[in-house]
Write a structure and sequence with these properties.
mainly alpha; 3 domains; Homeobox prospero protein
């Protein structure tokens, strides 16, 4: 009994006595609610039924290429008519294995990244060229030359 009372004195000193139960109960409820909200937000973000609205922002390139990552409805393999219709409509194009049965090459992520980089580079070069051209035209017009 003496050990129990000394343990209660110690717990009271560190803020865990009987009079502190209500406080810790409220803290527990607050933590439970907070973690529930954060867990629901995390779950929504990972498995959102609204594919167009998740909590994480998507880069511009991903938005432009989103049509490539749509889910395709593949026909049941035993249904020959549906499979033929699927292949005839070009449904297998763009997948890993093409309609002719061989793996399409040149569609890896490195190629995609290189194409994106070269596309961006070309756009920047075009902008720079137009800006320089406009500056030269404006300078020539200031000097009195007639330039269209």
């Amino acid at each position: 009994m003496a050990k129990l009372s000394s343990a209660q004195k110690f717990l009271k000193k560190i803020g865990l006595g009987k009079e502190d139960y209500y406080f810790w109960k409220q803290i527990g409820k607050a933590l439970l609610c907070t973690y529930t909200v954060f867990g629901a937000a995390w779950l929504w973000n990972e498995t959102s039924p609204l594919g167009w609205w998740t909590l994480k922002p998507r880069p511009k390139e991903e938005k432009e290429m989103a049509h490539l990552y749509e889910r395709r409805r593949f026909p049941y393999p035993g249904d020959k008519e549906a499979v033929e219709e699927f292949i005839a409509s070009g449904g297998a194009l763009g997948t890993t294995i093409g309609p002719r049965g061989f793996i399409e090459s040149g569609k890896d992520s490195e190629n995609f990244q290189k194409k994106l980089q070269s596309k961006k580079f070309e756009q920047e070069a075009q902008k720079l060229w137009l800006r320089m051209r406009n500056e030269v035209i404006s300078e020539l017009q200031e000097k009195g030359y007639d330039v269209e």
